[in-house]
Amino acid sequence: MYLASTKDVLFIVLAFAVLWLAIFLSWAIYYLIGILKDARDTVHGIKKAADAVEAAAGQVKTKFGSFMNIASIGAEGMKIFMEKMSAAKKRKGK
């Protein structure tokens, strides 16, 4: 007979316990891998969004820099205009 002693029963129970433990660990690892994949996809999406924001900020910086160059040229022009107007007033007043 296969079950000659209680030791044989113990080994059969331990074999089933190890089998169920292996099944549970496989299931847990499968779900852990799925969670890590979702986290990786989320981080990738956040990275793409951050890159898009950085690119937009770079474009705004470039446009603002161009505007400031034009504004400084306009300010210089206004300064020269005001100086000439002031000089003209002084000549007209004398």
Shape: rod-shaped
β-strand amount: under 5%
- Spatial extent as radius of gyration: 40 Å
> What distance separates the N and C termini?
134 Å
Q: Which oligomeric form is depicted?
A: single chain
- The parts where pLDDT drops under 50 for at least 5 residues are none
Proportion of helical residues: over 70%
- The secondary structure category is mainly alpha
Note down, in words, how this protein is organized.
The model has no long low-confidence stretch (mean pLDDT 89). With 94 residues, the chain is an all-alpha fold. The radius of gyration is 40 Å and the shape is rod-shaped. It is built from 1 helix and no strands. The longest helix has 88 residues, at 6-93.
Write a brief structural summary.
By secondary structure, this protein is mainly alpha-helical.
List the helices and strands and how they pair.
Elements: H1 6-93
Q: Which key terms come to mind for this protein?
A:
mainly alpha; 94 residues; rod-shaped; 1 helix
